[in-house]
User: Fold this.
Amino acid sequence: MLVFRGFSRPAPQSTALTIGNFDGVHRGHRALLERLCVTAKSEELLPSALTFEPHPREFFSPQAAPARLSTLREKLEMLAEEGIALACVGHFNAIFAALSAEDFIRRILVDTLKVGNLIVGDDFRFGASREGNFAMLRAAGERHGFRVGRMESVMVDGERVSSSAVRAALAAGEMERAARLLGRPYAIDGRVVHGDQLGRRLGFATANIRIKHDNPPLSGVFAVEVRGLPDGPYPGVANLGVRPSANPLARPLLEVHLFDFCADIYGAHLNVRFVHKLRSEQRFPDLAALQARIAQDAESARQYFKH
Assistant:
């Protein structure tokens, strides 16, 4: 997949384009991307997506912005898996936020991304003060010679699929509901780094995974499935949080204990899938109490995978 950062390079050919934040690439996004790729193939267009960094809500209200479901790298990887051949990452800043809807259409959609067919979600707005809407896109398409389609919301078990709904499920520890909305278990990627060896001293060696989520959408102790290692995936138990019982951390850390696994995996890039929440993170009076609860958590996770 080609990745363009900014709008200085024109697309190599006419595109079938969709636009959005695509946080988490959930089932609604995937349905849109599937339709886009079918359209691109039938019309001999390049299947493309325009997304933004940072998330617009992080730019306008950084303190109130929602937790990200996926990092930019994770999002781009998932877009590529869904068949996107060109991803354009627009830098969302004051200049971009002030761009009028008409300038957005002419300068970005037409001149840079060479749009031939545009498909957007049913709630898509764009341009300064969100002045642009579907009707404006339709009219612009008639002037500039591109087609415009709209994707209706996807419903799962009577619930509209959205990034907000996924965040709510994760925050409530409803991992099965989150997986239904996403179409897969929620996952975080990261690289294994050296830690303080506390887990090893307690009898449960852990892979300390450096994550780029400063504010992850979930926390606690989970049964997990880990991918990225030979002969995997591997089941395990994980803690995502700030470790209030021992050397509290300034930012969240993901610690994973893999069952029946012993190897040096420092530097490995792992994908950790959160399949079931066991409990919330809590503070213990001493290391003995912490050790006992870790043993209980590990057994609970083993039983989860067994049944």
